[in-house]
Specification:
OB fold (Dihydrolipoamide Acetyltransferase, E2P); 3 domains; five-stranded antiparallel β-sheet; 4 helices
């Protein structure tokens, strides 16, 4: 939720004597109050429409289609800060927060279809297996996107591990790496880590 909101809804506490936790921000509480008010109005509208339940079910299915879901674990909302056009590709820079920017490379045709412009809100999707992790601040990698944070959650399986990295802004990045990599890097909750991914691994989407 934090990744898709302009202000954090939840504040996370990593580690600590109580093992960390989360609490709502004032903005988060305001959003809940607004949701409850909209929910009540929506129910009143449904009660007034009543009658033809078949039409209502069809309309509801249509709305669900519009509310597209994706298998990409990482979903960010940001604002286009720069567009650089090349002979074949567009470089799109997207501001996530005061600390981080994401760079995506898409084809000129895709940029035209999305009708991208500076200042536009855009969604960035990144699959978890496309995210690389490293802890050494001196390491140089070729990936354009490097988001530093701390390990917030770690789910280790027999072969792979799912690592959630909490960014300073309250946003998170999820990576899937091998169990061996987790052991080699000494990953644990609270450990500083960088989540890196290629600009070509970023899929952009806009609201139509």
């Amino acid at each position: 939720m934090n990744n898709l909101c302009d202000q954090p809804l939840v504040l996370r506490e990593v580690g600590g004597r109580r093992g960390g936790g989360s609490q709502l921000t004032e903005h988060g509480r305001n959003m809940i109050r607004l949701f409850r008010a909209v929910e009540a109005e929506y129910q009143r509208a449904l009660d007034k429409l009543g009658g033809n339940l078949a039409d209502m079910r069809h309309f509801n299915r249509l709305l669900n289609r519009f509310s597209m879901k994706t298998s990409a674990r990482n979903q960010f909302m940001g604002v286009v800060s720069a567009l650089i056009q090349g002979p074949v590709n567009f470089e799109v820079r997207m501001r996530l927060d005061d600390w981080n920017e994401i760079v995506a490379v898409i084809t000129n045709e895709s940029a035209e279809n999305l009708e991208l412009r500076v200042g536009q809100e855009v969604f960035a999707l990144v699959k978890a297996p496309s995210v690389l992790l490293y802890t050494d601040t001196q390491v140089k990698v070729s990936t354009r996107n490097k988001l530093w944070g701390t390990v917030y959650d770690l789910q280790v399986g027999a072969v792979n591990a799912e690592v959630t990295v909490a960014l300073p802004s309250g946003k998170t990045v999820v990576a899937v790496v091998t169990r061996e990599s987790v052991e080699e890097m000494g990953l644990a909750v609270g450990v500083p880590v960088c989540a890196a991914f290629k600009s070509s691994s970023v899929i952009l989407a806009v609201m139509s």
